[in-house]
## 1
Amino acid sequence: MSDYLIEANLIGGAWRDATGEKIEVTNPATGAVLGHVPSFGASETEEAITAAADAFPGWAATDLGTRVGHLRRLHQALMDNQEALAALLTAEQGKPLAEARGEIAIGAAYVLWFAEEIRRLKGEIVPAPVNGRRLLVTHHPVGVVAAITPWNFPSSMLARKLGPALAAGCTTVVKPASLTPYSALAWGRLAEEAGFPPGVVNIVTGSAREIGGAIMSDPRVRKVTFTGSTEVGKTLIRQSADTVKKVSMELGGNAPFIVFDDADLDRAVEGAMIAKYRNSGQTCVCANRIYVQSGIHDSFVARLTEATKALKVGDGTEPGVEQGPLVDRSAFDKVTDLVADAVSHGAEVATGGGAHTLGGTWFEPTVLTGITPAMKIAREEIFGPVSAIVRFEDEAEAIEAANDTEFGLAAYAYTQNVARIFRLTETLNYGLIGINEGLITTVEAPFGGLKESGLGKEGGSQGLSDYLDSKYTCIGGL
Ligand code: ADP
């Protein structure tokens, strides 16, 4: 782990130690201080942008084969160091080691995917309306890209942004979440090991407002790619207007998980467990509202409650642990508040409901029934290990309720009725839909939300095009 626990920032190929204030990074499971990273601000961010802008022409003009080679080595470096990187991720974020290993692997897979995708990028020669002309459509890297990432997937969220940016020929300035900076800083070392030239990847830790302000006001930054809360995303979209930056936004969700009477019960329970409790409920695609049709309601609740009680809670480094702590006290307080609000409005606790006996920021894996739309838990992203169950009678009612939110990231449904499956793909107003599957993220498919859940896609071929500008050239007089 120690090789990749780096306390400095990477700016223009130089590792820079803190000169003034520092950010303390702690392990959410033990409270132990892992170390400190610089609390840099606007001036270091400007230096990083300058480094990225200076490196851009050279990197954009680098042979495709060379660029692909760097990306393939980056993928290999991630996989060769999977154990060390996973240990670092668990230490700063709290997720079970098995999940951390999975996050490193999917991050590596994104890098490899974009190394492959860039080789298949095609321009076009489109028919001209008159003879003597050729109309070319070509694709070009957008330029300097700023990537702002969250604490829940500090490594793989960066992979989805750095992968396509570097493949496309862009250079980057990364601002990781202050709770989990080490997983991002490790990417700086990995990029060096893979041979990326200085200035292509720059990483700055510190004040979100100052770093964000410098990024958003600088005309040299041509694109901002952000994963985080809808509130901050909206601020960044507003700030992007002044210099007309491209934006990719992966924002909050409020995923419905609908279980119809005709569902395969075993599969539905298994899917709900993974869609709800992965990363202790701290993912933007976590099942937030679980709608269960009347005929299957009681047996589903009984089975889900049994499986929830059986979850092994503890420090993510212990063998077999499935539920780590919440990332910090404010995350814990928010979940506590949502559960208290639901219970005060009539929700019933089938299991859990409060602080875990382990103390710290562990919250008991919880199942609540009798959830109604009036409760805050039905409207806000829970980001904790709480299953909130709503009973429903018919399909139309479930779809209307599922769509009754400003969010539109992920939705899940369990049914064996093929006609209904096709209806759901049309009526569920969500960017990602899992039918009889609770874990659907994959590098091959576009990940992205509708409505206030975001703009743009990550993964798939769309994930690359978001980092490219197209140009049309008309050649006349032929
Ligand atoms: P979360 O609630 O998941 O922590 P946030 O949206 O608060 O999500 O944070 C996601 C990332 O955005 C973090 O890296 C955070 O430091 C950064 N961030 C927060 N506020 C701003 C801002 N005003 N400008 C730029 N980045 C910000």
## 2
Amino acid sequence: MSEMIRIAIQKSGRLSEDSLNLIRECGIQFNNGTGKLKSEAANFPAEFLSLRDDDIPGYVADGVADIGIVGENVLIETHQKVDLVHRLGFSKCRLSLAVPRGDDYRQLTDLHQKRIATSYPRILSNFLQEHKIEADIHEISGSVEIAPSIGLTDAICDIVSSGSTLMSNGLKEVEVIFRSEAVLIAHPNLSPARQQILDKLIFRIKSVQAAKNNKYILLNAPKDAVAQITSILPGMKSPTIVPLAEEGWVSIHSVINENAFWDIIDNLRAAGAQGILVVPIEKMIM
Ligand code: ATP
Ligand code: MG
């Protein structure tokens, strides 16, 4: 049998959908039948294992899976021997300290000698140590946000995205202690054959990410505006310039970054660009 890589992904939760989308965007087809623990890709040497996210770093460290997708928070908290090989940019969230809304919290030292409930004792204790705060960490596995209202602790440390859970439990966010996103992790000693498959996968992921961050832009401009317009366009290399049937006009094509987008569009219009088209890029091979 030829070499295959085993990829651990979250079975169902906040990482699952984006993980599956990324894999699909990498052109990998597989049949993700519901409730199936294992499935094989049809057109890539990979097999997928659907697991609870907390178990993924351990399975990758043990070599049961070769690589996996997890939140960086879980990666740090589980403290398994795996390599972080690529940042994936989705499932972004923060781990924050929160206290009852009525507290007049001013600074971190206010938490000295206080009790803090969390599912992330390692990340929290590292943070507290770094800031020389001595507090009593209560590890609980779920519903951390109710701990203060039932009198278990004075504060909590939990994942926040919008803050509405904190709000509805009478809490306010006071410090961000860690920012997380989904990451690709790998077993530290992959066989050369599997490493090669991983490299191929990372190459595809980078192409997908680059494409998402960029747009293809086409516009028409009078010839005498070309110099100014090309100076506004920070393309991959130099822009493509094609003459139009109409005398004195050209079509200019380039690639622009998603973030610079609106500023660039305004500047282009001011420089005389017309008929501007901005289209998504499916893959961008660097
Ligand atoms: P499992 O059943 O697999 O153990 P879980 O309930 O522990 O799942 P999820 O809530 O699905 O975990 O979250 C998975 C990961 O997604 C978290 O570890 C974190 O990295 C990220 N995450 C958590 N909450 C959010 C959020 N509100 N927005 C974005 N990402 C989040
Ligand atoms: Mg979990």
